Amino acid sequence: MTASDALHINGVCKAYGPHTVLNDIDLVVATGSRTAIVGPSGSGKTTLLRIIAGFETPDTGSVTLGGVQMANGPTAMPAHKRGIGFVPQDGALFPHLSIADNIGFGLARHAPDRADRITELMDMVSLDAALLKRWPHELSGGQQQRVALARALALRPALMLLDEPFSALDTGLRASTRKAVAQLLSKAGVTTILVTHDQAEALSFADQVAVMRAGQLVQAGPPRELYLHPKDPAIASFLGESMVLPAQLTKGWADCALGRVAVSNQQRIGSAQIMLRPEQLHVALIPTVTSIAPTERPSVYGSVVDCDFGGAECSVTVELAQALRVTVHCPSSTAPAVGTRVTLSVSGNAHVFDSTELSVPPEEPQGPVLASANVAAV
């Protein structure tokens, strides 16, 4: 552990009877950074958060915060002594207390600067001080979440834990509240861990994303790295729409059901699985002149069999040879009609999964899969 590491989790295991919930978890969170822990239901992410908070104790392993050991196996520091802020999913405001008393709940009631601190916290979370006299039920969902955050920030915690705090909000409010909270925590320099099942939320909120599966931490790193270079097909599908195809690799190229596609791995040859993201696929009407210059990548021809209007964007399903169907996103203004013959091309490089990762069984995807992984290569 270095001086820049706020939190260090080492070898944490947790079981309830015969059921193992966490298996040898290692995770490092840098001071002032934002980490999102994601995974399907039952993956162990909330249990890990509760162990960090001190609501649960690990069977084995340690949790160290700012150089101070919070837990070493079942021997653990009580939650109220850890200096950790916690915001649960529903905010958990006290309904019988005013907003001012909710925010100041952890502050000494007769402290001379208590009122000033409460007003300062309201300003930090961008709420009008006039709301201090109201009751929780008189505030909107987004306002309640900000009050819960202000209450957690009151004692200047070394670490902030957020347990799916935006899940109950409407879509538009959810995005704006998430962005505001991220900016607030960064400005305050508070180290933060967010637990969520929403992959888009994790990718936009965090500096580091940690993916959990069946009680194990399967990959952690910067959001862009995990999105573009996931370790296995299951992680790829969990973090967003993906197309996973078998291919034959030769000197930086992959021959697959989409034709010849460039890959970033220049040395790998032979059989492999490759992944493409939907933004790499492009559909266009067949041009009058169909000849392709030798330096251009060849396009694949197909027919539009479905077009799902979604406002500014359409999801277009194209059927290629061997009944392979591929879904492509394109602007509604240029979406081809059903029955139209089109070309499908690929931009950028496909990601190549390591051969040791091909045996990982894909889980039920969290987002639509663009094509099945068992499509025969051409």
TrEMBL record:
Biological processes per GO annotation: quaternary ammonium group transport
UniProt-listed PROSITE patterns: ABC_TRANSPORTER_1, ABC_TRANSPORTER_2
Originating species: Rhodoferax aquaticus
Annotated region (Disordered), positions in chain: 357-378
Stored InterPro entries: AAA+_ATPase (IPR003593), ABC_SmlMolc_Importer (IPR050093), ABC_transporter-like_ATP-bd (IPR003439), ABC_transporter-like_CS (IPR017871), ABC_transpr_FbpC (IPR015853), Mo/tungstate-bd_C_term_dom (IPR008995), P-loop_NTPase (IPR027417), Transp-assoc_OB_typ2 (IPR013611)
Gene Ontology cellular component terms for the protein in this record: ATP-binding cassette (ABC) transporter complex
SMART domains reported in the protein's UniProt record: AAA
Keywords: ATP-binding, Cell membrane, Ion transport, Iron, Iron transport, Membrane, Nucleotide-binding, Transport
Domain of life: Bacteria
Protein name in the entry: ABC transporter ATP-binding protein
PANTHER family in UniProt: SPERMIDINE/PUTRESCINE IMPORT ATP-BINDING PROTEIN POTA, SPERMIDINE_PUTRESCINE IMPORT ATP-BINDING PROTEIN POTA
GO molecular function: ABC-type ferric iron transporter activity; ATP binding; ATP hydrolysis activity
One matching Pfam family: ABC_tran
Ranges for domain ABC transporter: 7-239
